[in-house]
Design a protein that fits this description.
The chain has 802 residues and is α+β, with helices and mostly antiparallel strands. It is 32% helix and 20% strand. It starts with a strand and ends in a 9-residue tail after the last helix. It holds the Pfam family BTK.
Length: 802
Amino acid sequence: MRDCYCTVNLDQEEVFRTKIVEKSLCPFYGEDFYCEIPRSFRHLSFYIFDRDVFRRDSIIGKVAIQKEDLQKYHNRDTWFQLQHVDADSEVQGKVHLELRLSEVITDTGIVCHKLAARIFECQGLPIVNGQCDPYATVTLAGPFRSEAKKTKVKKKTNNPQFDEVFYFEVTRPCSYSKKSHFDFEEEDVDKLEIRVDLWNASNLKFGDEFLGELRIPLKVLRQSSSYEAWYFLQPRDNGSKSLKPDDLGSLRLNVVYTEDHVFSSDYYSPLRDLLLKSADVEPVSASAAHILGEVCREKQEAAIPLVRLLLHYGKVVPFISAIASAEVKRTQDPNTIFRGNSLTSKCIDETMKLAGMHYLHVTLKSTIEEICQSHRSCEIDPVKLRDGENLENNMESLRQYVDRIFTVITKSGVSCPTVMCDIFFSLREAAAKRFQDDLDVRYTAVSSFIFLRFFAPAILSPNLFQLTPHHTDPQTSRTLTLISKTIQTLGSLSKSKSASFKESYMATFYEFFNEQKYADAVKNFLDLISSSGRRDPKSIEQPILLKEGFMIKRAQGRKRFGMKNFKKRWFRLTNHEFTYQKSKGDQPLCSIPIENILAVERLEEESFRMKNMFQVIQPERALYIQANNCVEAKDWIDTLTKVSQCNQKRLTVFHPSAYLNGHWLCCRASSDTAPGCTPCTGGLPANIQLDIDGDRETERIYSLFNLYMSKLEKMQEACGSKSVYDGPEQEEYSTFIIDDPQETYKTLKQVIAGVGTLEQEHAQYRRDKFKKTRYGSQEHPIGDKSFQNYIRQQSEVSTHSI
């Protein structure tokens, strides 16, 4: 049996790690990881490790998906065979090389040829066992010769700058013996090649580690005497052959990868304006936003970009109010109100996820953490009780947990975000107006979202809502399941509580909560969050925890004496202050008020020869911090920037490098108070809850319309059919909601025209990019398969934008 965990890597940089599943050969992780990718990459890799308490964890195998293949597996559950991990499977990085062939006339007047191989630099080499001290060997090889030369070792960098030139004699004067391996006829030059091997200088007894190679035949110099290009490193041709992949097992993954090319804002004006006025269209089913929901295969894929766009422009409440009112009018039974997976339900779900995440954390996080840490048994099913467990004690423990969570939820109404309250107010009014004889419908319309789709799922799967870092252990998961069921039933206000449970033990347990005070508390809470005149949540003084975790920081020089060394610290960011301490829960060693943060920017790697560093600039000094990986660094920078965006004294310029040895490394200014030499990066929205790019969301909506263009055309046909034919509706058109065929057709015509214009702009951009791009450039090194695919695609007509 093994104790296994899985890591997610961009190339070989770890950006996420699952929990450890102990004593299992078939571990189930069920963990979701989402990130914006902050840099270019070639492979998305997944490594499976076997934990070893006494030695370094051993690698069982890996799955590496090339970037150009990610679309092939997009949003599909796929089993991948694990591959062996060796030096050849771990090759990454690129090399900048120049070859120059020249004729040299000897003292005797004889002409010979010499080759100059100049290796400029490498980028993105792998880090082996926590370090990278690379060097290169340059070899001129042929059928009868092999001459190698070596660069200097560059310490502690995976982006070495070599800039070394090596000279090789390609042909020698004929005075040499015919049998000499130096004597080559002119046509034999084509049989020679330059091989560049990258190695990591290691102190281990096993020798230096192979990092990659490239082979260039000298016949590339036929057209020109010089040749300069970037190359991707490749595995060795004679690399070790892997064993059968079945020997290692397989890994099930669902990868969702999207890549957007976003134009400037003015390109999207026609389509964006059409979407933003959706709430004002009568009927709302004829609006562009509603049409998007009709043509998409899943309502969820339409709701995500749509809600983000409408939130960004402050239009989400009127739109959701309009589509909710239309859905309520079509509902016949008050008991089924908002129960389906309609566009309304999906839009409200997405709005709660975006606007309510901090509210959820403030309300539940501390209680959920305590439940996870206490490991108290709360099993109340007599069949599942373990030996030595007491049913009454377990039931009491569970009752206490339910009481605590119920209390924090029902007392949190004043903290509920305004946008959620405005939506709940419109749901309540629409339901009460439609079903005037049902006095409870005004509550159930709201509780079906806030309890059933917000709090209950967060309690059941806290890791999906960032309430816990990983999936909980089986015992805690069972406890949270029982709590979630009870909270869901308490919030539903159903008239027959016990009948809500299939299990008799749950019905017995629920007798604890049959008192009227629980129903009254739920109604008071629902009244508060669905009333238009509630208290503004901005008046709440309780700090909101935005982010926390271990990072490495450099001493700031607050003390006059002492080394400015690097130390691991626990960092904590709230909307009030940024602090660090030795360990989680300790007293802060340093506290930086948010108003004292003047800028948050990346720090150039050359400053300390350390990757993923950034700086928090204060009035007197800068705090230099190293994050664990590139994704985490970007997340910290974005969050710190957002929360400090409104500071009046924010800087406009900064120093991208550190102040060391009496000067700034970037501009060489000697004064530590010298003004910055580089403009600060663009600011982000001040709203700490939402970071939305409206143009990017419009681009995604355009992509969806373009993808489902055939359905848009089919919907046009349905509008025409409904306008001229009053008989039974044709089956192929019955899936569309069309209340006003003429208005809907008019909107469809505008949508199709807007999408067509954007498609022409994308096609022109691709043509222009193709003309300007050079194969072998730093952006597209030789060996870049994605660029080779891109070249092939230029001859094809694109059907949609990715």
